[in-house]
Amino acid sequence: MENHSSSSSSSSSSPEEENDHHNLLNESVSQIPPSTFAVENLRSRLTRTFKLNLTKKQLIIIFLPLLFVFVYLSTDFTIKIPDFLYRPKTESNRAHKTGLSPVIRCRKLDQKITGRKTVQWKPKPDKYLLAICLSGQMSNHLICLEKHMFIAALLNRILVIPSHKFDYHYNQIIDIDRINTCLGSNVVVSFDKFKKKKKHNHHVRFICYFSKPELCYVDKEHLTKLKSLGISINGKLDSPWEEDIGKPSNKTVEEVESRFGSDDDVIAVGDVFYANVEKEMVMQPGGPVAHKCRSLIEPNRLILLTAQRFIQTFLGKNYIALHFRRHGFLKFCNAKNPSCFYPIPQAAACITRLIEKVDAPVIYLSTDAAESEIGLLQLLLNLNGKNVPLVKRPPRDSAEKWDALLYRHGLEGDSQVEAMLDKTISAMSSVFIGASGSTFTEDILRLRKDWRTASYCDEYLCANEPPNFVADHE
């Protein structure tokens, strides 16, 4: 019994006995020689290191894919192709947002010359139409003259160019003889030649295109001038229809032929600048009359050559032309909504954007602006830290030969000749910036259309935005 109880008590020892037992073991360990302790310690450290490395590998295996997913979702992997790989090499090598070269971006318009709708101009030998153009300045008169040609062709009449005593000196500005060459027959004649041919019979019947605000849009002063030139008015002024200059209606070829057909030798229809006859035909490249030239109304040869010499001297092949209309334009533009008169800084910003697109080194400036406005505009025209020069025609200098032709023929200093010279230089530019509402600009656009120099980048100044400040009305 005692033996059984003692064995039972030894197998289930008390906590105090277990502590004593561990203490004895610790004492034994502390008595182990140093060499034996070092081996065991190394083994323990290796075991712990192995377990630690295993834990890192597990972490890498678990979290590495997650890291890749996070990087993929948070990073833009769009590949940016350097500009030089698709942009042609240019002198300035400027960066363009579109990546297209100026040649492609501002290429010439396809004018679609084939398929033009035109009329033949085959005048009867003794039937004349006297051109009368009184509205506005020279640009208005040239547009009026082109419309007179259309009407003369419809009525089978020879067009009489007005005398310089009644109108501008057209012979100094446009090439009249060339018009006959383009048509292959005598379709226009100067007033002096007309007088010689008709001798004493200078009776003119007025069949007025416009009835309002006054018949034929001719005032008493100009009727007096006509009489002083030997022109007598046959009967009274009359109009075959109600037509107001303020609200011109669309007219067809058939309407003009039926209303203005006449057996009279000489007729006049008055100023037709505002006339609206077959607008789509008139706006075609080359105009509504069939001919073998680029354009019927062009600068005379002296002006054309002078423009070419100026371009060769100052501008070169690639330049922007700017018609910057200012004088008298503030009130005119502010009567419109939106206005077309821009503060100089805003105008400079619009021009600079186009310069960047065109990549042109210079701008030809045709303007009536004051020097203070031109100076500020020039100061603000900067691209990539460089100023883009505005080039105007300089005053006459005997050392320069580009304008020698005009000087030798006594045309130097003539305001209308200089205006046509401005137009010609502008019409030959790579890109043209015009003034909205200006007939000077519209005549340049006509030349560019006819000469096939119009560009996809041609525009009116700040065309897509209104002025950022407009003054109140009076």
UniProtKB/TrEMBL annotation:
One of its GO terms (biological process) is fucose metabolic process. One of its GO terms (cellular component) is membrane. It is found in: Membrane. Keywords: Carbohydrate metabolism, Fucose metabolism, Glycoprotein, Glycosyltransferase, Membrane, Transferase, Transmembrane, Transmembrane helix. It is a single-pass membrane protein. The keyword Transmembrane applies. It comes from the Eukaryota. GO terms for molecular function: peptide-O-fucosyltransferase activity. The chain crosses the membrane at residues 58-75. Residues 1-14 have a biased composition (Low complexity). Its main location: membrane. Residues 1-22 are annotated as: Disordered. Belongs to the glycosyltransferase GT106 family. This is O-fucosyltransferase family protein.
